[in-house]
Amino acid sequence: LKLAFLGVFSCAQFSFDPPDWTQVSDEAKQLVKLMLTYEPSKRISAEEALNHPWIVKFCSQKHTDVGKHALTGALGNMKKFQSSQKLAQAAMLFMGSKLTTLEETKELTQIFRQLDNNGDGQLDRKELIEGYRKLMQWKGDTVSDLDSSQIEAEVDHILQSVDFDRNGYIEYSEFVTVCMDKQLLLSRERLLAAFQQFDSDGSGKITNEELGRCTKYGGHEKL
Description:
The protein is mainly alpha-helical. Helices cover about 60% and strands about 0% of the residues.
């Protein structure tokens, strides 16, 4: 990554075409351009960067505020998540709760805390509905009776798919597992680590006995 960045910087060529940039504001793109200016005399200084309108705007917001894009992504991933086989659930839950870094889950942790109104460490049906309502209000939409019914139906679908242990709540580990970008979560290294955890005798295979133990992880029981 460092070498790739240096290569882009040295030739002063970069593009905002990749999909990751579609949700980035023009102000943010302008700041990136200023920071990547090839000629040092024309490049923005660190102090100027810190005083850039885009930085100032977001630093002035409360630390607990969640951006529309981040909340949209999290709720969207929960909505799209499909219930999978027990082994897949157990593997994903293990990777999401045990093999992710604080940096990788920082934004999701912030979103979870914003949605968790009573601070009990889990999201219930009411809190998820309020999260959807908040997102619609941010978008400038008014919530009609029809919209409310659709929101409730979507939340019920989410709970059915995401609540692995069927306790009526989405716990933090479940939230991270389904909201995290799947290409990031399902890396080769994490998949191997999960397999090695489940393959307790190191045989290179998961036996029926090991399978029975590891699928309990989907119910939050310890291996």
